Amino acid sequence: MVALSPLLALLNYISPEAEFTPPVIYSTKRREKLIFMAEAIPALQQAGRMKIGQPFDVEIIGDE
């Protein structure tokens, strides 16, 4: 899979609990492997690059 350039979006919800945990994770030391459902509103010029339900890696860059 080829990584595309980052997308800018307003993150408006992150689930407080993991939605899916791969079966090989059994400790809190491996939390980076947990998957959380999130909702985001993309910047208008980038909205066409996102699809509903598409998985993304999220990096929070500030609390603006």
Largest sheet: 2 strands, antiparallel
User: What Rg is obtained from the alpha carbons, in whole angstroms?
Assistant: 14 Å
Series of secondary-structure elements, N-terminal to C-terminal: EE
Fraction of residues in β-strands: 15-25%
* Helix content percent band: under 10%
Instruction: Give unreliable regions as ranges.
Output: none
Shape: elongated
Structural class determined from secondary elements: mainly beta
Q: Span between N and C termini?
A: 31 Å
Q: Count the beta strands.
A: 2
Placed side by side, the strands forming the largest sheet appear as 1-2
Provide the residue-averaged pLDDT.
76
Please give the count of helices. Answer: 0
List descriptors.
64 residues; mainly beta; 2 strands; 17% strand; lipoprotein; Lipoprotein
Describe it for me?
- Keywords: Lipoprotein.
- This is Lipoprotein.
- The chain has strands spanning about 10-15, 40.
- It has a two-stranded antiparallel ribbon.
- It is an all-beta fold and about 60 residues long.
- The mean pLDDT is about 75.
- It has a domain at about 10-50.
- The protein is about 0% helix and about 15% strand.
- The protein starts with 8 loop residues before the first strand and ends in a 22-residue tail after the last strand.
- The chain is built from no helices and 2 strands.
